[in-house]
Amino acid sequence: MAHDDPHALDRSYQAPAGLSVDVSDPAQNPGLPPHRERITDEDPKAMETAARTVYTLFYLSLAGSIWAVAAYMLFPIESGSLVDVRYNNLFIGLGIALALLALGVGAIHWSKAIMSDKEHIEYRHPTRGRDSVREASIQAFAAANEESGFGRRKMIRNSLIAAVIASVVPGLALFRGLAPHSTAANPIAGDPVQLLKHTMWDKGMRLTRDPDGTPIRAADVVLGSAVHVIPEPLSKLGHEDGYLEEKAKAIVLLIRLLPEQLKESAERKAWSYNGIVAYSKVCTHVGCPVALYEQQTHHLLCPCHQSQFDVTEAAKVIFGPAARPLPQLPIAVDDEGYLIAQSDFHEPVGPSFWERH
């Protein structure tokens, strides 16, 4: 039987033999349980106390954000001091944690104790772009504003806005540490071209194993091997003397192939020794360490974004987002058979950037 009302009861239903079904009185909607008033609904003083708690938490969040920025400046990681680095991480972390925790707790307490908690039913209806729908939307926003008190409780509103805005400030301030800054003692520190153009490598400097600083004899480099290499003076530097900063620029990967496998230009024929070549280990995409060597294909792989470089052809890019080959370190052998650098790299190491010509 067809009915105009899809929810109408089908009284034509026949129960199986021996089973009686009463279809005369369908189940009724029991409705909502009685509303329980909160303390803040019954006591104006409790409501004001809750409001003070909320905006106090929001202002506490604001203070946490300000403290995180202040800690970033009070304990600069650029100083190189391990104490400053520890305090920088500790106090910035505490400031950001306080800012986000107080903001979250304040928002939850606001919704639990102050906003209207009366139950209501929202019936579904077709969504259409009519004027009545727009008017209903405006009324809904007005009702939400009235129930939450956002428009009339200025202290809560203003403290919330201030806390939300301030919560992103520590993150913005931390971007400052991503780039070095020029100083009177180091005027090129803010120039990435000059900063990455020169490393510790110099003429006659021995290649040594990372990290123990053992000099490397050419005869000891096995065919198909890949050795991580640092300049000899670097192993004598302490961490307080810029060891990590210098190593990040000067780290090299030493590889030995058959001499006939190298496809060298006339300019670079003297940069290798008996099939041994040295390339910067710093990827020219975003600076990740290139350390995966495929012995059979002679490809170097960057694990971060899958750039690949061909060792046999001056480490040219054959796949991935890297924009240029890995810089090559010219090498030779001294009178004792140890591998040495002929000079520094002939181009900046590290990521490509728009300032580089």
TrEMBL record:
Protein name: Cytochrome bc1 complex Rieske iron-sulfur subunit
Signal sequence, start to end: none
InterPro entries with a match to the protein in the record: QcrA_N, Rieske_2Fe-2S, Rieske_2Fe-2S_sf, Rieske_Fe-S_prot, Rieske_Fe-S_prot_C
Purpose: Iron-sulfur subunit of the cytochrome bc1 complex, an essential component of the respiratory electron transport chain required for ATP synthesis. The bc1 complex catalyzes the oxidation of menaquinol and the reduction of cytochrome c in the respiratory chain. The bc1 complex operates through a Q-cycle mechanism that couples electron transfer to generation of the proton gradient that drives ATP synthesis.
UniProtKB keywords: 2Fe-2S, Cell membrane, Disulfide bond, Electron transport, Iron, Iron-sulfur, Membrane, Metal-binding, Oxidoreductase, Respiratory chain, Transmembrane, Transmembrane helix, Transport
Pfam family, one: Rieske
Cofactor(s) needed: [2Fe-2S] cluster
Annotated spans, Disordered: 1-44
Domain Rieske: 249-340
Superkingdom classification of source: Bacteria
SUPFAM superfamilies, per the entry: ISP domain
Bilayer topology term: Multi-pass membrane protein
Lineage of the organism: Bacteria, Bacillati, Actinomycetota, Actinomycetes, Micrococcales
